[in-house]
Amino acid sequence: MELDKMDENDWKYHGEGNKSLVVSHVQLSRVLRLLKYPAEDSENPPQTVEQAFRQIQNIVDFSSNVMSSLLGDKFIHSGEVVKLPLEFVRQLSIKVQHQRPAWRCDKVMDIYSGCALCLPNLTSPVLHQATHTPPLCIEIKPKCGFLPSSKHVSKDIKTKVCRFCMHQHYKVANGKWKRPSLYCPLDLFSGNRQRMHFAIRHLIEEPQNNFKIFKGGQCIYSSKEVSDDSMDLNGLLHHLRPYFLYGNNRINSHMTSKAVLNDFITVLVNALLSGGGGGDGEVVTDTRGEGRSFCEASLFNKERIRHGSQGLPSDSVLFRILQTQMLDTLDIEGLYPLYRRVEQHLQDFPKERTRLQMEGPYNEAFLEKLQKCPTEDDGSVEYAVAKVHQYRVAMTAKDCSIMVALVPSSEEEEGDEGLSTQRRLRDFLSSRPPALSYSVSILDLDPKPFDSIPSQLRLDQKIVSCYLRTGGALPKGSLPPHSGIFTAAEREDCTLLFHPM
After folding, report:
1. Residue range 354-371, pLDDT digits in tens
2. What whole-number distance in Å separates Cα of residue 106 and Cα of residue 16?
3. Residue 45: predicted pLDDT
4. CB atoms < 10 A from the CB of 326, how many?
5. Whole-angstrom Cα distance, residue 498 to residue 207?
6. Cα dist. 199→106, 132, 319, 493 in Å?
7. What is the largest CA-CA distance in the chain?
8. CA triple 97-100-102, angle to 5 deg
9. Given a cut of 70, is residue 129 above it in pLDDT?
């Protein structure tokens, strides 16, 4: 990529979050992530070029020096900061404007600094020689996978119903979504295949912003924001069938919809339980007690667990994410007084911000601060800072995304070793092995700002009080959860196929 010969026509709108907008290259497997500002600041950039550069460099450093160490560098792509020609950025901003969702347009793209984060495009991986079938890429935002047990938790419901399930009620009550998702993160993080299958099923039924599927870099399945349109399951099945019609079923085009979906979910579960590299990690069973691994709002019936352990392989992506999330040992309620201690100290001694690394640099010293935090509160500002840093890292892990790339491999490639992160998916159904390789990555690993802690406490209080007020019932006027697109898929099937277990 020659930075001095950049052409906006080589790039297309890819997506955006709250703080940045992403464009992807039409040929190279590359994306650029550019900062966004509130629209009212569009004439006067709120920060200098140096500050914009530092902000993006902080994201790179936090990912490569802190999160990579905790989550495993085999899953992380930190990228690099690039300085783009300003005219290119301005033209790019004009080009993508009409493709942006209207509700995101309260912010504008940074056209003043020219700074961007350059990363590999994980939705169109270059893992194998080109085959006729483009790669599939599944993005999952798993959210928090455990219930708090901190003595600081003031409302008992928080130890029984997970944050995600309570937040669903709050979002529906406030009109963010028309219907709730029945996905529960505790089922996905359980390590039990039945519960994981159940969780992914509900992600497919109601994706919201927690589930997307890309094919050859194009998004083919995601949620319609604040829409009561039912998801187009037939469209999804049309895209998935070619990946799961193999063996005898190449001739039998009547492979059932249910079988296609089940195979797709099984492949995803396998990828999430794999170590992403060679060797199988030991399964770490749930030492937190049975109570903390089940959410009372989940529709999964505990009695249905017939076989299989509760627990994740120690080298799996889910285990690494969960361990990092659990650095939040105090819950926001226990953390807030420590935040106040730090805030008061910084008001009295403003120059201490640098020594305490409140805004970075995110280096080995920062990692050491949070890893060597004493277990007991000695009343010091150092203890409070370490707990605040741990909490911020845990919040990043609670908000990250997992990318699973599924790459069809041709018969000639069967002998290839491929990348270290690839594993064969030949064992999931011995009678019908798909020729797929996969890679697993984690993204969205930005540091959470120190100053956001008070608003996180307020949100927590709103979510809990909304859930308690309604007794877990949905507000009037909201749509009921999907009755089950899977049962609809089963009804469409004329043929029943029985697979050996």
Report:
1. 999 999 999 999 999 999
2. 12
3. 81
4. 16
5. 29
6. 33, 31, 16, 23
7. 75
8. 110
9. no
DSSP secondary structure code for residue 76 in this structure:
B
Q: Where are the beta strands (DSSP E) in 175-286?
A: 211-215, 218-221, 283-285
pLDDT digits (tens, 9 = 90+) for 224-233: 653 444 457 8
Structure tokens at 451: 């100053």
Give the C-alpha separation, 204 to 12, whole Å: 26
Residue 25, beta-bridge partner list: 11
Cβ contacts of residue 121 below 8 Å, gap of 6+?
14, 24, 25, 28, 29, 30, 31, 217
Torsion of CA 195, 197, 16, 481, to 10 degrees: -80
pLDDT of residue 284: 61
pTM: 0.88
Q: Which of 114, 50, 120, 125 is closest to 78 using CA atoms? A: 120
Q: How confident is the model at residue 487 (pLDDT cuts 50, 70, 90)?
A: low
CB neighbour list of residue 89: distance below 8 Å, 6 or more residues apart: 34, 109, 110, 111, 114, 116
Each residue's pLDDT tens digit, 145-185: 999 999 999 999 999 999 999 999 999 999 889 889 999 99
Distance (Å, whole) CA 80 – CA 116: 8
Sorted by sequence, the CB contacts under 8 Å of residue 3 that are 6+ apart come out as 82, 83, 84, 85
Locate the DSSP E strands across 251-361: 283-285, 311-313
Q: Give which of 270, 138, 141, 130 is closest to 215, Cα–Cα.
A: 138
**Buried residues in 204-241 as b, exposed as e (16+ CB within 10 A):** bbbbbebbbbbbebeebbbbeeeeeeebebeebbeebe
